[in-house]
Design a protein that fits this description.
With 477 residues, the protein is mainly α. 66% of the residues lie in helices and 6% in strands. The strands form three sheets. Strands 1-2-3 form a three-stranded antiparallel sheet. The protein has a two-stranded antiparallel ribbon with strand order 4-5.
Length: 477
């Protein structure tokens, strides 16, 4: 086991936050999810696996939640009446499959898994189905997602407000953009080593790649695709808030900066994600504005969308050299993607994953036993039909939640809930096009936990928070 410098910083920060207000711990938990290429602790004995910064900080956040509220609120998150119960069932089922399915179906099919190679780097190989270290690591990540959901629910049910969620997202977006800028600057100044402290994970780091003559922004992630997927989630949340008039011009500027960062990531994942999320945001805002004139009007957005094709046409017509460059860029990024080596490899992953699903009679090969290039096929090849159904049911249960009728929720709380749901949708969009493993990161579970708690009747949450504050005052006196 080797503790990295950023891991030491995480441990020290987590220890200090145990004695700070619990809302500070939540902000740092969400911020930690931005460090997707930062391994806090390396575990060479487990096939080169790493404990990432967000997973390590989650332990301190959970401890802080137990110190503040006890275990009751955490267990309440997985009660049968809440979406967390479905997530609990899914996680237990995943654990069961990881333990038994690779042995039950051993040798019956082949799967794509990560294997340790020379130099402690990992490669993806096609091998006969068998138990591997991936079964352990993916199970740990699955449990971490459940814990993140339950602890976030406990925080927002007892002490957190929609304002805490909004502030945490704004801080995370600002830091993400700052590192994106640093990525570009260090690349062109040949000082990439300055960002080495956030690029310690045992991944194939593609942080110096170019596409169409542009630097592919990777920021604090191992590659541009991962950066684009994460940035799309932040964009979906903040754009949703902006279109509902939350926090005014400052959040509007942040929305456009995230949009620009997504474009300059030159990632097909980001471009496809934008093509999906922007229309959803547009139509949702349009119909909501028609029903509620107090919301930000979308006339400007409508005009911008309508004028965009004309502007692009005029620019390309007057600058034929630029037109050829842009055409070549999009041909390389989108239209010829399937013919590239990367596209062919990912198509092969999907074909193998689908065959694994069929060869295991729809039960799946077990959590962590197979990789694909689409989260849908990851679910089917790992957890089978039942696992895919449980995951879909969990997502539907969260997205269908609405604030209780008659609960005196602040107006901004409803906006925050809808923004969190847009973030969840953005995670699923990117995962459906490029997700390779079951682990989707902690962000989706943090947003799901916040959504579940914030839709609870407001008077109950307010009384719980007031009761907790009163008990602390009594203890101090």
């Amino acid at each position: 086991m080797r503790v990295e410098f950023i891991g030491l910083v995480t441990i020290l920060l987590g220890a200090m936050l145990l004695f700070a207000p619990v809302r500070h711990s939540f902000t740092w938990l969400m911020l930690s999810t931005a460090f997707g290429a930062a391994a806090a602790i390396a575990l060479p004995g487990m096939g080169g696996a790493s404990i990432l910064v967000p997973n390590l900080f989650l332990l301190f956040f959970v401890l802080r939640i137990f110190m503040a509220f006890g275990e009751g609120q955490v267990f309440a998150a997985v009660s049968p009446s809440r979406a967390g119960f479905i997530l609990l069932a899914l996680t237990v089922f995943g654990l069961f499959t990881a333990l038994f399915f690779p042995r039950l179906f051993q040798g019956m099919t082949e799967t794509m898994i990560v294997e340790r190679s020379v130099g402690l780097r990992n490669i993806i190989s096609l091998v006969p189905l068998r138990a591997s270290s991936s079964n352990i690591t993916q199970t740990v990540y699955a449990v971490g997602g459940l814990v993140a959901f339950a602890s976030t629910f406990a925080f927002f049910r007892r002490a957190g407000t929609h304002d805490d969620l909004i502030k945490a997202v704004l801080v995370t977006a600002t830091v993400t953009l700052s590192f994106a800028l640093a990525d570009v600057v260090t690349y062109f100044t040949r000082t990439e080593y300055l960002l080495g402290f956030v690029r310690t994970a045992n991944y194939a780091l593609l942080t110096s790649a170019e596409k169409g003559g542009l630097k592919r922004i990777s920021g604090t992630f191992p590659e541009a695709s991962a950066f684009a997927g994460y940035t799309l989630v932040l964009f979906a949340i903040i754009a949703s808030l902006w279109l509902e008039g939350v926090r005014g011009r400052a959040i509007g500027l942040l929305t456009w900066l995230l949009f620009i960062a997504l474009l300059f990531s030159t990632s097909a994942t980001g471009l496809v994600g934008l093509a999906t999320i922007v229309p959803v945001l547009f139509f949702r805002s349009f119909f909501r504005s028609s029903a509620d004139r107090s919301r930000r009007p979308v006339l400007f957005v409508v005009a911008s969308v309508a004028a965009a094709p004309l502007i692009v046409f005029l620019v390309l017509a007057t600058l034929p050299g630029l037109s050829a460059g842009v055409a070549g860029f999009f041909d390389e990024m989108l239209f010829s993607k399937a013919d590239s080596q990367s596209g062919q490899e990912r198509a092969e992953w999907n074909a193998v994953a689908y065959k694994t699903f069929l060869d295991t009679f729809g039960f799946g090969a077990g959590l962590g036993s197979a990789r694909a290039s689409s989260f849908v096929l990851v679910l089917l090849s790992n957890l089978g039909v039942l696992g895919a159904f449980l995951f879909a049911l969990f997502i539907w249960s969260v997205l269908s939640l609405k604030p209780a009728v008659g609960s005196a929720q602040p107006i901004e709380c409803g906006s925050a809930i809808r923004a969190a749901k847009m973030g969840i949708v953005a995670v699923l969009v990117t995962a459906s096009t490029s997700g390779t493993v079951y682990d989707l990161g902690l962000m989706i579970y943090i947003l799901a936990g916040a959504t579940t708690a914030l839709t609870e009747p407001y008077p109950l949450r307010a009384r719980a928070s007031a009761s907790h504050t009163m008990s602390l005052m009594e203890r101090r006196s």
